Amino acid sequence: MNPTTIVLHGRKVVGGCAEGEALVTTQTISGWGGVNPMIGTVIETRHELRGQSFKDKVLVFPGAKGSSGWSAVFHMTRLANAAPKALVFNEMTTKIALGAVVMRIPSITDLDRDPLEVIETGDWVKVDADRGIVEIRKAAARSSRAETSAAV
Amino acid sequence: MKLTDSEQAMLDGREGAARQKAMQLLVRYAEALGAERFVETTNVAGVPGTSNPFLESYYLEAGDRYDVVYSRFDLDSDEVVEVPRITVNSCHLQGGIDPENWQTLGAKPEQLRISQAGEKSAANHGIKILKTCTPYLVGNVPARGEHCAWMESSAVVYCNSVLAARTNTEGRESTSAAMLTGRIPDWGFHQDSYRLATHRIDVEIPVESVMDWGMLGYYAGDMVGERIPVLVGKYGQPDLVRHKHFGAAAASSGGVEMYHVVGVTPEAPSLESALGGRVPRETHRYGKAEQRRIYEILNARGKDPNVDFVMLGCPHHSLDQIKEVCRLLGGKRISANCRLWIFTSRAVRAVADREGYSKLIRDAGGVLLTDTCSAIGQTVPPGTKVVALDSAKQTHYLPAIMGIEAWFGTTQDCINAALTGRWNGVAP
């Protein structure tokens, strides 16, 4: 394994394996009224991700908040091909459990380190939910390696 | 998962294909939560089989449209199954359109057709068509300790906190599955230990009006997120409407599904019992500065004092609130530059019609609408730039959804704005 890879261990919420670029927020996300499901963007007024899309990203966040429409809105993101590739989150709620189930994407929680502290937006993250493993390749490490090889 | 014999029978398909699909979804959901068993639920509130133009165009399978949407979306099934008559006590919450005033809401005939077809099918399946976010105002009042499976965050928080019945914030898919099976995962608020307060909020200023309670709720949600606050301090006896606005706000700024008010809510006879003898993880103080900060957050999207739209009824107005609106209107007409929409349930509307309130509102130039609200229906009068609201929850959602400015204040501030076309609300 590459020495710059960080591995976290957690509990499978929904099985499967997927990888992609991380989109990280320390703020919980509203589904209904907080997200445009057709394009997968956050629309909540005060949210730090406002205007950003989680489509095809590994979404790393504390968890779900707000309306009970959470699962239905994220369910719609799957139908509109605007869903995240995987979920990594801290706080289990019925909203996020049901949303992860109907999005049918690999999802992990209860990690041995806080993913919000370890993972940064732009990191490459592999979520192997069946084995309860999250592998992180740091964007900074990747770019510094690229610089090194360019210098050589 | 430990399944009972009857649950296993449903999962095996011995109770029909629809109950099998429903049980499969509930098992996936329970495993995601980490639940080990189900509870039997006797009160389910959701939006079963509700369609919209997107789903209509997405699911092109042949067959009964209600079965198609219920199977494919609600039960997340890859095949379409026939949905049998619902035998579990179930109701339909708010929808997207008022079938009588759909043109006022700017709805298209196609939306009305989809909505009415869905409603007819749901009714034919034995689901009560309450069409409100406030089922507890129109006869669906669960008993203390009753296991419920409710959607609608403002109703969920009322159900747990004020009624001491038990529900998590369920979603569309889990409620539709619960309607078929009478089961929901035994997790979260179904369990005694989960219902205890985690965070303490000391209320150090008097909290009296509906607006005061809305702001306090917004603060509580902002502070505790998805946790459970217990309030201690300077508050009077909140009535139903104050609880409604407090809970709705706390469930919007955060994810509050239950709160305790010492000496008021049934599971908080004392601070110690609300906390279950534990020390709160955090203690917050709600004083003048905090109230002021919340007022400023809620008015952050208000710039232009010219108000062209006033929307009341989030959560749906009670009969008392409608009566209060009529008193504040005082027989005057609203400004020609402003629209006034007040949302309530069908049942409350029926009484308001008979008591003459609907006519008083109409004579003033406003309209009493049912079934939906501006945020749910994603509808405001054409050309709306600035809305005035008396609900912290609606203020949280509507400007973001519709891209408009918003003022937040008392119901009186809002009616004044409707009468004059100007916002004159003042910070408390």
Give a verbal description of the structure.
- The complex is a heterodimer of chains A (152) and B (428).
- By secondary structure, chain A is an alpha/beta fold.
- Chain A has one domain: Glucose Oxidase, domain 1, CATH 3.50.30.10.
- In chain A, 24% of the residues lie in helices and 30% in strands.
- Chain A has helices at residues 70-79, 94-103, 115-118, 139-151, and strands at 5-9, 11-14, 17-24, 29-30, 35-36, 41-42, 58-61, 64-65, 86-89, 107-109, 124-128, 133-137.
- Chain A has an 8-stranded mixed β-sheet.
- In chain A, a hairpin with a 4-residue loop joins strand 11 (124-128) and strand 12.
- Chain A is globular and about 40 Å long.
- Chain B has 428 residues and is of the alpha/beta class.
- Chain B folds into 3 domains: 5-192, Aconitase, domain 3; 196-297, no CATH class; 301-420, Aconitase, domain 3 (2-Layer Sandwich), CATH 3.30.499.10.
- A 5-stranded parallel β-sheet of chain B has the order 13-12-11-14-15, sandwiched between helices. A 4-stranded parallel β-sheet of chain B has the order 4-3-2-5. In chain B, strands 9-8-7-10 form a 4-stranded parallel β-sheet.
- In chain B, strand 11, helix 12 (319-329) and strand 12 (339-344) form a beta-alpha-beta unit.
- In chain B, helix 6 crosses helix 9 (240-253).
- The interface between A and B is large, with 39 and 41 residues.
